[in-house]
Write a structure and sequence with these properties.
The protein has about 525 residues and is mainly beta. It has one domain: Beta Barrel (Porin). About 5% of the residues lie in helices and about 50% in strands. It contains 4 helices and 24 strands. It has a 24-stranded antiparallel β-sheet that branches. The longest helix has 9 residues. The protein is elongated, with a radius of gyration of 26 Å. It starts with a helix and ends with a strand.
Protein backbone atom coordinates (compact mmCIF):
# COMPACT_ATOMS: atom_id res chain seq x y z
CA UNK A 1 0.00 0.00 0.00
CA UNK A 2 1.33 3.45 -0.89
CA UNK A 3 1.92 6.09 1.72
CA UNK A 4 -0.75 8.38 0.27
CA UNK A 5 -3.31 5.63 0.79
CA UNK A 6 -2.15 5.20 4.37
CA UNK A 7 -2.63 8.89 5.00
CA UNK A 8 -6.06 8.68 3.39
CA UNK A 9 -7.04 6.08 5.97
CA UNK A 10 -5.80 8.14 8.89
CA UNK A 11 -7.67 11.28 7.97
CA UNK A 12 -11.00 9.53 7.61
CA UNK A 13 -10.81 7.67 10.87
CA UNK A 14 -13.32 7.62 13.67
CA UNK A 15 -13.61 10.31 16.30
CA UNK A 16 -15.85 7.94 18.19
CA UNK A 17 -18.78 9.14 20.22
CA UNK A 18 -18.43 12.85 20.08
CA UNK A 19 -20.75 14.28 22.64
CA UNK A 20 -21.77 11.73 25.24
CA UNK A 21 -19.35 9.85 27.39
CA UNK A 22 -22.21 7.87 28.74
CA UNK A 23 -25.93 7.37 28.63
CA UNK A 24 -28.09 9.74 30.66
CA UNK A 25 -27.85 9.44 34.45
CA UNK A 26 -30.87 10.10 36.70
CA UNK A 27 -31.50 13.64 37.67
CA UNK A 28 -30.44 16.56 37.19
CA UNK A 29 -29.57 18.45 40.36
CA UNK A 30 -29.63 17.75 44.08
CA UNK A 31 -33.31 16.90 44.61
CA UNK A 32 -34.19 14.78 41.61
CA UNK A 33 -30.90 12.86 41.58
CA UNK A 34 -31.30 12.10 45.31
CA UNK A 35 -34.57 10.39 44.36
CA UNK A 36 -32.75 8.33 41.66
CA UNK A 37 -34.63 10.39 39.08
CA UNK A 38 -38.14 9.52 40.30
CA UNK A 39 -39.43 13.09 40.13
CA UNK A 40 -41.48 13.71 36.98
CA UNK A 41 -44.63 14.12 39.09
CA UNK A 42 -43.13 15.60 42.26
CA UNK A 43 -40.61 18.17 40.98
CA UNK A 44 -41.44 21.64 42.34
CA UNK A 45 -38.22 23.71 42.04
CA UNK A 46 -36.19 25.10 39.15
CA UNK A 47 -35.02 21.54 38.36
CA UNK A 48 -38.43 21.22 36.66
CA UNK A 49 -37.02 23.04 33.64
CA UNK A 50 -35.35 19.73 32.73
CA UNK A 51 -37.44 17.04 34.45
CA UNK A 52 -40.94 18.33 33.67
CA UNK A 53 -41.63 22.01 32.87
CA UNK A 54 -45.20 21.65 34.19
CA UNK A 55 -43.65 21.42 37.67
CA UNK A 56 -42.73 25.11 37.44
CA UNK A 57 -46.38 25.82 38.31
CA UNK A 58 -45.62 24.66 41.88
CA UNK A 59 -42.84 27.17 42.45
CA UNK A 60 -43.52 30.18 44.66
CA UNK A 61 -43.09 33.87 43.85
CA UNK A 62 -39.82 34.61 42.13
CA UNK A 63 -37.67 31.52 42.61
CA UNK A 64 -33.94 31.02 42.02
CA UNK A 65 -32.50 27.51 41.91
CA UNK A 66 -28.78 26.68 41.83
CA UNK A 67 -28.20 22.95 41.78
CA UNK A 68 -25.69 20.40 40.53
CA UNK A 69 -24.77 16.74 40.50
CA UNK A 70 -20.99 16.12 40.59
CA UNK A 71 -20.25 12.87 38.74
CA UNK A 72 -17.16 10.67 38.67
CA UNK A 73 -16.89 7.70 36.29
CA UNK A 74 -14.70 4.62 36.74
CA UNK A 75 -14.16 2.14 33.90
CA UNK A 76 -11.74 -0.69 33.15
CA UNK A 77 -11.34 -2.73 29.97
CA UNK A 78 -9.46 -6.03 29.91
CA UNK A 79 -9.09 -6.85 26.24
CA UNK A 80 -9.02 -10.54 25.40
CA UNK A 81 -5.97 -11.94 23.57
CA UNK A 82 -2.30 -11.09 23.17
CA UNK A 83 -0.18 -8.71 21.13
CA UNK A 84 0.56 -10.32 17.75
CA UNK A 85 4.02 -10.77 16.34
CA UNK A 86 4.84 -8.02 13.84
CA UNK A 87 6.43 -9.33 10.60
CA UNK A 88 10.07 -8.24 10.22
CA UNK A 89 9.92 -6.22 13.47
CA UNK A 90 11.15 -7.41 16.86
CA UNK A 91 9.15 -5.86 19.73
CA UNK A 92 9.47 -6.94 23.38
CA UNK A 93 5.73 -7.13 24.05
CA UNK A 94 4.85 -9.53 21.23
CA UNK A 95 2.88 -12.50 22.58
CA UNK A 96 2.13 -10.83 25.91
CA UNK A 97 -1.49 -10.58 27.16
CA UNK A 98 -3.14 -7.22 26.77
CA UNK A 99 -2.87 -5.11 29.94
CA UNK A 100 -5.93 -3.64 31.63
CA UNK A 101 -6.79 -0.09 30.62
CA UNK A 102 -8.85 2.32 32.68
CA UNK A 103 -10.28 5.80 32.47
CA UNK A 104 -7.97 8.23 34.25
CA UNK A 105 -9.72 11.40 33.12
CA UNK A 106 -9.88 14.53 35.24
CA UNK A 107 -12.81 16.90 35.03
CA UNK A 108 -12.02 20.24 33.41
CA UNK A 109 -14.11 22.32 35.82
CA UNK A 110 -14.36 19.95 38.77
CA UNK A 111 -12.28 18.43 41.55
CA UNK A 112 -10.28 15.37 40.52
CA UNK A 113 -12.53 13.19 38.43
CA UNK A 114 -15.77 14.80 39.65
CA UNK A 115 -17.49 16.96 37.05
CA UNK A 116 -20.39 19.16 38.25
CA UNK A 117 -23.42 19.11 35.92
CA UNK A 118 -25.34 22.32 36.71
CA UNK A 119 -28.94 23.45 36.70
CA UNK A 120 -29.47 27.21 37.11
CA UNK A 121 -33.01 28.57 36.90
CA UNK A 122 -34.93 31.78 37.61
CA UNK A 123 -38.73 31.39 37.74
CA UNK A 124 -41.44 33.99 38.18
CA UNK A 125 -44.94 35.14 37.29
CA UNK A 126 -46.70 38.37 36.36
CA UNK A 127 -49.84 39.86 37.88
CA UNK A 128 -51.50 40.20 34.47
CA UNK A 129 -51.43 36.40 33.96
CA UNK A 130 -51.26 34.85 37.44
CA UNK A 131 -51.66 31.26 36.22
CA UNK A 132 -48.65 31.56 33.92
CA UNK A 133 -45.14 31.03 35.24
CA UNK A 134 -42.03 31.59 33.14
CA UNK A 135 -38.47 30.42 33.68
CA UNK A 136 -35.05 31.10 32.24
CA UNK A 137 -32.38 28.52 32.89
CA UNK A 138 -29.18 26.74 31.96
CA UNK A 139 -28.55 23.01 32.18
CA UNK A 140 -26.44 20.22 30.68
CA UNK A 141 -27.27 16.56 30.00
CA UNK A 142 -26.56 14.43 33.07
CA UNK A 143 -23.67 12.30 31.78
CA UNK A 144 -19.88 12.07 32.06
CA UNK A 145 -18.26 13.38 28.84
CA UNK A 146 -14.56 12.69 29.51
CA UNK A 147 -12.17 9.88 28.61
CA UNK A 148 -8.42 9.57 29.12
CA UNK A 149 -7.55 5.90 28.77
CA UNK A 150 -4.31 4.79 30.38
CA UNK A 151 -2.61 1.42 30.94
CA UNK A 152 -2.67 0.03 34.47
CA UNK A 153 0.79 -0.57 35.93
CA UNK A 154 2.00 -3.24 38.37
CA UNK A 155 2.51 -0.60 41.08
CA UNK A 156 -1.13 0.50 40.81
CA UNK A 157 -0.45 3.55 38.68
CA UNK A 158 -1.90 4.25 35.26
CA UNK A 159 0.35 5.25 32.36
CA UNK A 160 -0.93 7.35 29.44
CA UNK A 161 0.07 6.09 26.02
CA UNK A 162 2.31 8.38 23.96
CA UNK A 163 2.03 7.79 20.22
CA UNK A 164 5.41 7.72 18.41
CA UNK A 165 7.11 7.69 21.81
CA UNK A 166 9.13 4.71 23.08
CA UNK A 167 8.92 2.08 20.28
CA UNK A 168 9.28 -0.69 22.86
CA UNK A 169 6.32 0.50 24.95
CA UNK A 170 3.21 -1.66 24.54
CA UNK A 171 0.41 0.37 22.92
CA UNK A 172 -2.93 0.96 24.60
CA UNK A 173 -5.28 -1.97 23.74
CA UNK A 174 -8.26 0.41 23.46
CA UNK A 175 -6.57 2.96 21.22
CA UNK A 176 -8.79 2.19 18.19
CA UNK A 177 -11.90 3.00 20.21
CA UNK A 178 -10.92 6.21 21.98
CA UNK A 179 -7.79 7.59 23.64
CA UNK A 180 -8.78 10.95 25.02
CA UNK A 181 -11.87 13.13 24.83
CA UNK A 182 -13.40 16.14 26.53
CA UNK A 183 -16.80 17.52 25.61
CA UNK A 184 -19.42 19.95 26.85
CA UNK A 185 -23.02 20.77 26.00
CA UNK A 186 -24.81 23.66 27.69
CA UNK A 187 -28.49 24.42 27.05
CA UNK A 188 -29.77 27.96 27.78
CA UNK A 189 -33.52 27.41 27.95
CA UNK A 190 -36.77 29.35 28.19
CA UNK A 191 -39.72 27.51 29.78
CA UNK A 192 -43.27 28.21 30.92
CA UNK A 193 -46.06 26.47 32.80
CA UNK A 194 -49.77 27.21 32.95
CA UNK A 195 -52.35 26.07 35.50
CA UNK A 196 -55.20 25.12 33.18
CA UNK A 197 -57.36 23.80 36.04
CA UNK A 198 -56.81 23.73 39.78
CA UNK A 199 -55.64 20.13 39.39
CA UNK A 200 -53.96 20.30 35.94
CA UNK A 201 -50.69 21.99 34.96
CA UNK A 202 -49.00 21.97 31.57
CA UNK A 203 -45.56 23.18 30.60
CA UNK A 204 -43.09 23.48 27.75
CA UNK A 205 -39.49 24.49 27.20
CA UNK A 206 -37.26 25.39 24.26
CA UNK A 207 -33.60 26.25 24.07
CA UNK A 208 -30.57 26.63 21.87
CA UNK A 209 -27.35 25.19 23.24
CA UNK A 210 -23.63 25.31 22.61
CA UNK A 211 -21.38 22.25 22.35
CA UNK A 212 -17.61 21.68 22.15
CA UNK A 213 -15.49 18.61 21.54
CA UNK A 214 -11.85 17.54 21.63
CA UNK A 215 -11.15 13.92 20.73
CA UNK A 216 -8.17 11.69 19.95
CA UNK A 217 -8.28 8.18 18.50
CA UNK A 218 -5.87 5.80 16.76
CA UNK A 219 -6.78 4.03 13.51
CA UNK A 220 -5.11 1.78 11.00
CA UNK A 221 -2.83 3.63 8.59
CA UNK A 222 -3.04 0.64 6.29
CA UNK A 223 -6.14 -1.33 5.23
CA UNK A 224 -4.44 -4.61 6.18
CA UNK A 225 -2.93 -3.75 9.56
CA UNK A 226 -4.63 -6.81 11.03
CA UNK A 227 -1.81 -7.51 13.48
CA UNK A 228 -2.30 -3.99 14.88
CA UNK A 229 1.28 -2.88 14.39
CA UNK A 230 1.53 0.40 16.26
CA UNK A 231 4.07 1.59 13.71
CA UNK A 232 1.32 1.31 11.13
CA UNK A 233 -1.13 3.29 13.21
CA UNK A 234 -2.17 6.89 12.86
CA UNK A 235 -3.38 9.40 15.41
CA UNK A 236 -6.39 11.56 14.55
CA UNK A 237 -7.14 14.61 16.68
CA UNK A 238 -10.32 16.64 16.18
CA UNK A 239 -11.52 19.85 17.82
CA UNK A 240 -15.02 21.05 16.90
CA UNK A 241 -17.99 23.04 18.17
CA UNK A 242 -21.61 23.81 17.38
CA UNK A 243 -23.11 27.12 18.45
CA UNK A 244 -26.69 26.27 17.48
CA UNK A 245 -28.03 23.11 19.17
CA UNK A 246 -31.84 23.34 19.46
CA UNK A 247 -33.95 21.26 21.85
CA UNK A 248 -37.46 21.36 23.28
CA UNK A 249 -39.74 19.49 25.66
CA UNK A 250 -43.23 19.44 27.13
CA UNK A 251 -44.92 17.96 30.16
CA UNK A 252 -47.97 17.85 32.42
CA UNK A 253 -49.00 17.13 36.00
CA UNK A 254 -52.52 16.03 36.94
CA UNK A 255 -53.96 15.60 40.45
CA UNK A 256 -57.14 13.45 40.24
CA UNK A 257 -57.31 13.28 44.07
CA UNK A 258 -55.54 15.21 46.84
CA UNK A 259 -53.27 12.20 47.44
CA UNK A 260 -52.48 11.19 43.85
CA UNK A 261 -50.43 13.07 41.27
CA UNK A 262 -49.55 11.94 37.76
CA UNK A 263 -46.82 13.50 35.63
CA UNK A 264 -45.37 13.07 32.17
CA UNK A 265 -42.55 14.62 30.18
CA UNK A 266 -41.29 14.42 26.59
CA UNK A 267 -37.83 15.66 25.55
CA UNK A 268 -36.81 16.08 21.92
CA UNK A 269 -33.68 14.72 20.30
CA UNK A 270 -30.65 17.03 20.44
CA UNK A 271 -29.04 17.23 17.03
CA UNK A 272 -25.40 18.35 16.92
CA UNK A 273 -23.62 19.52 13.77
CA UNK A 274 -20.15 20.39 15.00
CA UNK A 275 -17.52 22.02 12.83
CA UNK A 276 -13.84 22.51 13.55
CA UNK A 277 -10.36 21.34 12.61
CA UNK A 278 -8.52 18.02 12.41
CA UNK A 279 -4.90 16.96 12.23
CA UNK A 280 -3.20 13.59 11.88
CA UNK A 281 0.12 11.97 12.75
CA UNK A 282 1.54 8.91 10.98
CA UNK A 283 3.38 6.02 12.60
CA UNK A 284 6.90 5.17 11.36
CA UNK A 285 5.72 2.11 9.38
CA UNK A 286 2.62 3.60 7.81
CA UNK A 287 2.12 2.53 4.22
CA UNK A 288 4.91 1.52 1.87
CA UNK A 289 6.65 2.57 -1.30
CA UNK A 290 8.23 5.75 0.04
CA UNK A 291 6.00 7.99 -2.06
CA UNK A 292 6.02 11.56 -0.75
CA UNK A 293 2.56 12.95 -0.15
CA UNK A 294 0.89 16.09 1.06
CA UNK A 295 -2.39 16.28 2.94
CA UNK A 296 -4.11 19.40 1.65
CA UNK A 297 -7.51 21.02 2.06
CA UNK A 298 -9.98 20.71 -0.77
CA UNK A 299 -10.73 23.90 -2.73
CA UNK A 300 -13.15 26.16 -0.89
CA UNK A 301 -15.78 25.82 -3.60
CA UNK A 302 -16.19 22.08 -2.90
CA UNK A 303 -15.73 22.15 0.90
CA UNK A 304 -18.62 20.49 2.75
CA UNK A 305 -17.70 21.48 6.32
CA UNK A 306 -16.22 24.96 6.03
CA UNK A 307 -13.95 27.06 3.89
CA UNK A 308 -10.43 28.10 4.81
CA UNK A 309 -8.81 24.76 5.65
CA UNK A 310 -5.02 24.54 5.67
CA UNK A 311 -2.35 21.92 6.13
CA UNK A 312 -2.27 20.92 9.81
CA UNK A 313 -5.71 22.44 10.45
CA UNK A 314 -8.09 20.76 8.04
CA UNK A 315 -11.77 21.57 8.29
CA UNK A 316 -13.84 18.80 9.88
CA UNK A 317 -17.48 18.27 10.77
CA UNK A 318 -19.28 15.72 12.91
CA UNK A 319 -22.95 14.82 12.93
CA UNK A 320 -24.28 13.30 16.15
CA UNK A 321 -27.53 13.13 18.05
CA UNK A 322 -28.66 12.66 21.63
CA UNK A 323 -31.98 10.82 21.57
CA UNK A 324 -35.51 11.85 22.38
CA UNK A 325 -36.98 10.48 25.60
CA UNK A 326 -40.26 10.21 27.47
CA UNK A 327 -41.17 9.60 31.10
CA UNK A 328 -44.49 8.86 32.82
CA UNK A 329 -44.88 8.66 36.57
CA UNK A 330 -47.32 8.69 39.46
CA UNK A 331 -46.86 9.47 43.12
CA UNK A 332 -48.88 9.02 46.26
CA UNK A 333 -48.77 11.85 48.77
CA UNK A 334 -49.10 11.26 52.49
CA UNK A 335 -51.06 14.16 53.94
CA UNK A 336 -51.21 15.29 57.55
CA UNK A 337 -54.29 16.34 59.46
CA UNK A 338 -53.73 19.86 58.16
CA UNK A 339 -53.89 18.49 54.57
CA UNK A 340 -50.27 19.45 54.00
CA UNK A 341 -47.84 16.99 52.45
CA UNK A 342 -45.83 14.91 54.94
CA UNK A 343 -44.16 12.63 52.41
CA UNK A 344 -44.54 10.84 49.11
CA UNK A 345 -43.57 7.81 47.09
CA UNK A 346 -43.25 7.94 43.30
CA UNK A 347 -42.86 5.36 40.54
CA UNK A 348 -41.64 6.47 37.09
CA UNK A 349 -41.07 4.57 33.86
CA UNK A 350 -39.08 5.99 30.97
CA UNK A 351 -37.81 5.44 27.44
CA UNK A 352 -34.75 6.75 25.58
CA UNK A 353 -34.55 6.31 21.81
CA UNK A 354 -30.86 5.29 21.51
CA UNK A 355 -31.83 2.71 18.88
CA UNK A 356 -32.58 5.48 16.38
CA UNK A 357 -29.82 5.38 13.71
CA UNK A 358 -29.03 9.05 14.30
CA UNK A 359 -28.26 8.39 17.97
CA UNK A 360 -26.55 5.03 17.44
CA UNK A 361 -24.18 6.07 14.65
CA UNK A 362 -22.11 9.23 14.12
CA UNK A 363 -20.92 10.72 10.84
CA UNK A 364 -17.42 12.18 10.39
CA UNK A 365 -16.24 14.27 7.44
CA UNK A 366 -12.89 16.00 6.82
CA UNK A 367 -12.51 18.51 3.95
CA UNK A 368 -9.16 17.33 2.62
CA UNK A 369 -7.48 15.42 -0.14
CA UNK A 370 -4.29 13.46 -0.54
CA UNK A 371 -1.87 14.91 -3.11
CA UNK A 372 1.21 13.14 -4.46
CA UNK A 373 4.31 14.63 -6.04
CA UNK A 374 2.93 13.67 -9.44
CA UNK A 375 -0.12 15.90 -8.92
CA UNK A 376 -3.79 15.16 -8.53
CA UNK A 377 -5.63 14.31 -5.36
CA UNK A 378 -8.06 11.90 -3.76
CA UNK A 379 -10.88 13.53 -1.76
CA UNK A 380 -11.60 12.02 1.65
CA UNK A 381 -15.21 10.99 2.06
CA UNK A 382 -17.60 10.83 5.01
CA UNK A 383 -17.50 7.83 7.33
CA UNK A 384 -19.89 6.37 9.89
CA UNK A 385 -18.90 5.34 13.42
CA UNK A 386 -21.07 2.40 14.50
CA UNK A 387 -22.18 1.71 18.08
CA UNK A 388 -24.93 -0.89 17.86
CA UNK A 389 -27.25 0.88 20.30
CA UNK A 390 -30.77 -0.12 21.19
CA UNK A 391 -33.56 1.73 22.98
CA UNK A 392 -33.22 2.08 26.75
CA UNK A 393 -36.07 1.56 29.19
CA UNK A 394 -35.91 2.52 32.84
CA UNK A 395 -37.93 2.31 36.03
CA UNK A 396 -37.35 4.50 39.09
CA UNK A 397 -38.81 4.40 42.58
CA UNK A 398 -38.21 7.28 44.96
CA UNK A 399 -39.74 9.30 47.71
CA UNK A 400 -39.34 11.70 50.61
CA UNK A 401 -40.49 12.36 54.16
CA UNK A 402 -40.72 15.65 56.03
CA UNK A 403 -39.87 16.18 59.68
CA UNK A 404 -40.96 19.43 61.38
CA UNK A 405 -38.11 21.33 63.08
CA UNK A 406 -39.81 24.23 64.81
CA UNK A 407 -41.14 26.50 62.06
CA UNK A 408 -38.88 24.82 59.48
CA UNK A 409 -38.72 21.37 57.89
CA UNK A 410 -36.10 18.68 57.51
CA UNK A 411 -36.59 16.51 54.39
CA UNK A 412 -35.20 12.99 53.85
CA UNK A 413 -35.08 11.55 50.31
CA UNK A 414 -34.06 8.37 48.59
CA UNK A 415 -34.54 6.31 45.49
CA UNK A 416 -33.53 3.35 43.39
CA UNK A 417 -33.59 3.00 39.62
CA UNK A 418 -32.74 0.56 36.85
CA UNK A 419 -31.84 1.26 33.20
CA UNK A 420 -31.56 -1.44 30.54
CA UNK A 421 -28.37 -1.67 28.48
CA UNK A 422 -28.00 0.64 25.49
CA UNK A 423 -25.28 -1.48 23.93
CA UNK A 424 -26.44 -4.68 22.28
CA UNK A 425 -24.58 -7.90 23.23
CA UNK A 426 -21.03 -7.68 21.91
CA UNK A 427 -21.20 -3.91 21.31
CA UNK A 428 -20.02 -2.52 24.65
CA UNK A 429 -17.29 0.05 23.93
CA UNK A 430 -14.87 2.29 25.80
CA UNK A 431 -16.00 5.53 24.15
CA UNK A 432 -19.61 5.40 25.42
CA UNK A 433 -20.87 3.61 28.51
CA UNK A 434 -23.69 1.44 27.18
CA UNK A 435 -24.05 -0.93 30.16
CA UNK A 436 -27.20 -1.57 32.17
CA UNK A 437 -27.36 0.43 35.39
CA UNK A 438 -28.72 0.24 38.91
CA UNK A 439 -28.82 3.58 40.73
CA UNK A 440 -29.11 3.98 44.50
CA UNK A 441 -29.34 7.48 45.95
CA UNK A 442 -29.97 9.19 49.29
CA UNK A 443 -30.31 12.84 50.20
CA UNK A 444 -31.83 15.44 52.39
CA UNK A 445 -32.90 19.05 52.56
CA UNK A 446 -33.61 21.84 55.01
CA UNK A 447 -36.54 24.13 54.23
CA UNK A 448 -37.00 27.52 55.90
CA UNK A 449 -39.43 30.30 55.16
CA UNK A 450 -37.48 31.82 52.28
CA UNK A 451 -34.93 29.22 51.23
CA UNK A 452 -34.14 25.53 50.95
CA UNK A 453 -30.77 23.76 50.80
CA UNK A 454 -30.39 20.20 49.50
CA UNK A 455 -27.61 17.62 49.34
CA UNK A 456 -27.28 13.99 48.37
CA UNK A 457 -25.12 11.05 47.44
CA UNK A 458 -25.59 8.33 44.84
CA UNK A 459 -23.89 5.34 43.30
CA UNK A 460 -24.49 3.71 39.93
CA UNK A 461 -23.66 0.01 39.76
CA UNK A 462 -23.06 -1.77 36.46
CA UNK A 463 -22.75 -5.48 35.72
CA UNK A 464 -19.57 -6.99 34.36
CA UNK A 465 -19.94 -6.97 30.56
CA UNK A 466 -18.08 -9.63 28.58
CA UNK A 467 -17.86 -9.16 24.82
CA UNK A 468 -17.14 -12.79 24.01
CA UNK A 469 -15.06 -13.95 21.06
CA UNK A 470 -11.41 -14.28 20.07
CA UNK A 471 -11.53 -12.18 16.94
CA UNK A 472 -8.64 -9.79 17.35
CA UNK A 473 -5.96 -9.22 16.48
CA UNK A 474 -5.91 -11.66 13.59
CA UNK A 475 -3.18 -13.31 11.57
CA UNK A 476 -2.12 -11.59 8.34
CA UNK A 477 -2.50 -14.90 6.53
CA UNK A 478 -5.70 -14.96 4.42
CA UNK A 479 -6.42 -18.53 5.51
CA UNK A 480 -6.59 -17.36 9.15
CA UNK A 481 -8.88 -14.38 8.66
CA UNK A 482 -12.33 -14.24 10.24
CA UNK A 483 -13.35 -14.58 13.85
CA UNK A 484 -13.16 -18.39 13.61
CA UNK A 485 -9.69 -18.31 11.98
CA UNK A 486 -11.16 -20.32 9.11
CA UNK A 487 -10.78 -17.78 6.33
CA UNK A 488 -14.50 -16.98 6.43
CA UNK A 489 -15.65 -13.56 7.64
CA UNK A 490 -19.16 -12.78 8.84
CA UNK A 491 -21.29 -10.66 6.49
CA UNK A 492 -21.06 -6.99 7.37
CA UNK A 493 -24.62 -6.80 8.68
CA UNK A 494 -24.11 -9.82 10.96
CA UNK A 495 -20.89 -8.65 12.60
CA UNK A 496 -20.90 -8.10 16.34
CA UNK A 497 -18.70 -5.24 17.49
CA UNK A 498 -16.99 -2.35 15.66
CA UNK A 499 -14.19 -2.86 13.13
CA UNK A 500 -11.59 -0.16 12.41
CA UNK A 501 -12.86 2.18 9.71
CA UNK A 502 -11.24 1.82 6.30
CA UNK A 503 -12.46 4.48 3.84
CA UNK A 504 -10.53 2.95 0.94
CA UNK A 505 -13.03 0.08 0.86
CA UNK A 506 -16.75 -0.29 1.04
CA UNK A 507 -17.78 -1.26 4.59
CA UNK A 508 -18.73 -4.73 3.37
CA UNK A 509 -15.12 -5.21 2.20
CA UNK A 510 -13.50 -4.24 5.50
CA UNK A 511 -11.64 -7.05 7.25
CA UNK A 512 -13.53 -8.32 10.28
CA UNK A 513 -11.48 -7.26 13.31
CA UNK A 514 -13.62 -5.92 16.18
CA UNK A 515 -11.60 -3.88 18.64
CA UNK A 516 -13.79 -4.34 21.73
CA UNK A 517 -13.44 -8.05 22.58
CA UNK A 518 -12.97 -8.42 26.35
CA UNK A 519 -14.42 -7.49 29.72
CA UNK A 520 -15.73 -4.07 30.76
CA UNK A 521 -16.41 -3.03 34.34
CA UNK A 522 -17.63 0.38 35.43
CA UNK A 523 -19.75 2.56 37.65
CA UNK A 524 -20.35 6.09 38.94
CA UNK A 525 -20.23 8.04 42.18
CA UNK A 526 -22.37 11.18 42.49
CA UNK A 527 -22.51 14.01 45.01
CA UNK A 528 -25.35 16.50 44.83
CA UNK A 529 -25.69 20.00 46.24
CA UNK A 530 -28.27 22.70 45.61
CA UNK A 531 -30.11 25.70 46.98
CA UNK A 532 -33.43 27.39 46.19
CA UNK A 533 -34.76 30.71 47.38
CA UNK A 534 -38.04 32.47 46.71
CA UNK A 535 -39.27 36.01 47.36
Amino acid sequence: MTRWAATFVILTGSVSSAFAGGMYLPGPGAITTSRAGAAVASVDTGEAIVVNPAGLAKTEGWTITLSAAAIDYAMTFARRGTYDAIPDVDLPYEGQPYPVVEDGSKAALGIGGFQPIPVITVTGSFAAVPKLRVALGLYAPNSYPYRDLCTRQADGGCKPYEFNGDPNAAPNPARYDVVKRSAALFMPTLAASYRVLPNLDIGARAGVGYSTLKSSVHIWSSPGNVVEDVGGDGLLEVEASDGFVPAYGAGFTYRPTPNLEIGGNYSSEIGIRAKGTAKSTLGPRSGSGGIEVMVAPVPDEVAQCAKGGRVGALKACITAELPRSATLGARYKFLGKDKKERGDVELDVGWENWGNPGSSDFAVKIDSEIQTAGGGGVVIRENIVRHGFQDVFNVRLGGSWRFPVGANTLIARGGIGYDTAAAKPGWMRADIDGAARTTVALGGGYRAKRFQVDAGFGMVFEPRVDNTGECNPISPMPADLGCNRDGVQDPFGDRIGPDPINPLLFPEQQLQAPVNRGVFEGGYIMFMLGATTWF
